[in-house]
């Protein structure tokens, strides 16, 4: 249902030209082209973050999200985060994600991000049956709207709003140039293995992912400040519940 709605919205908006967007001081103080990163600005797309051929990552010092946009319609995504579990405070799930593809600035002020199909993610779930694995990650994203403001301390600040209007963490401009891996398919996803788990879930993984899962993917370097905060928040939530 969501995918159908997303496609319908994109098709309707595609009739308007990207030139219809008004780039004024309240919307966009600088072009979206460049490299953007949230928080401490340690999560930055490009070769310092991901090695798609090996389905590997270089873990940043802090969690966050980063995007790069080129002037010829390519984007790259880097994301590193941990999520708590209120009922099981020690079961902190970590994910690190890389993807790239094409973006379109639509005339209604939204952005559609369409991956080329070679994205991947590592999931670390200590309380799950399979606690550390790599799998495909390829999701078309709709950003309902976007704004770039001038932060008095950090300069241009990009605000992205997801399909439901919820905000992505504010992104600061690390560089006016896009920091990206080559603009082509960088990971072989043609040779995949489909398996059905004991509880009926269907998974699809590349041969490289399957090999890495059997040998064990590297442990994520969890930033202690963030982890302690998540554990504390989960414990407080459990008490409230």
In a nutshell, what does this entry contain?
The protein is an alpha+beta fold and 241 residues long. The chain is built from 3 helices and 14 strands.
Provide the structure class.
alpha+beta
Between the first and last Cα atoms, what is the distance in angstroms?
Answer: 32 Å
Instruction: Report the total helices.
Output: 3
The SSE order reads HEEEEEEEEEEEEEEHH
Proportion in β-strands = 35-45%
Mean pLDDT: 78
State Rg: 19 Å
Subcellular location: Endoplasmic reticulum membrane
Protein name: Protein ROT1
Signal peptide: 1-18
Organism: Mycena rosella (Pink bonnet)
Describe what you observe in this structure.
The protein has 241 residues and is of the alpha+beta class. It has one domain (2-240). The chain has three helices and 14 strands. The strands form three sheets. It has an eight-stranded antiparallel β-barrel. Strands 2-3 form a two-stranded antiparallel sheet. The protein has a two-stranded antiparallel ribbon with strand order 13-14. A hairpin with a 5-residue loop joins strand 13 and strand 14 (202-206). The protein starts with a helix and ends with a helix.
Write a concise keyword list for the protein shown above:
241 residues, disordered C terminus, 14 strands, 8-stranded antiparallel beta barrel, alpha+beta, disordered N terminus
Helix and strand topology:
Blueprint lengths: L1 H12 L20 E5 L11 E2 L4 E2 L6 E6 L4 E10 L9 E13 L5 E5 L4 E5 L7 E5 L4 E11 L3 E8 L8 E5 L16 E5 L5 E5 H9 L8 H17 L1
Antiparallel strand pairs: 1-4, 1-12, 2-3, 4-5, 5-6, 6-7, 6-8, 7-10, 8-9, 10-11, 11-12, 13-14
């Amino acid at each position: 249902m969501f995918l159908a709605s997303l496609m319908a919205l994109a098709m309707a908006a595609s009739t308007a030209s990207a030139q219809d967007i008004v780039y004024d001081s309240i919307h966009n103080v600088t072009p979206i082209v460049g490299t953007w990163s949230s928080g401490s600005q340690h999560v930055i797309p490009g070769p310092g973050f991901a090695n798609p051929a090996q389905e590997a990552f270089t873990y940043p010092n802090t969690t966050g999200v980063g995007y790069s946009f080129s002037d010829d319609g390519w984007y790259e995504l880097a994301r590193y985060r941990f999520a708590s579990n209120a009922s099981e405070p020690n079961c902190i799930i970590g994910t690190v994600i890389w993807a790239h593809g094409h973006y379109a600035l639509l005339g209604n002020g939204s952005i559609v991000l369409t991956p080329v199909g070679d994205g991947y993610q590592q999931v670390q779930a200590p309380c799950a049956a399979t606690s550390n694995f790599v799998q495909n990650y390829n999701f078309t994203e709709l950003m309902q709207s976007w704004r770039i403001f001038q932060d008095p301390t950090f300069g241009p600040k990009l605000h992205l709003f997801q399909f439901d209007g919820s905000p992505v963490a504010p992104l600061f401009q690390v560089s006016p140039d896009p920091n990206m891996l080559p603009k082509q398919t960088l990971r072989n996803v043609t040779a995949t293995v489909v398996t059905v788990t004991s509880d009926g879930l269907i998974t699809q993984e590349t041969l490289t992912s399957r090999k890495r899962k059997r040998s064990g993917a590297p442990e994520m370097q969890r930033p202690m400040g963030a982890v302690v905060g998540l554990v504390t928040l989960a414990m407080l939530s459990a008490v409230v519940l």
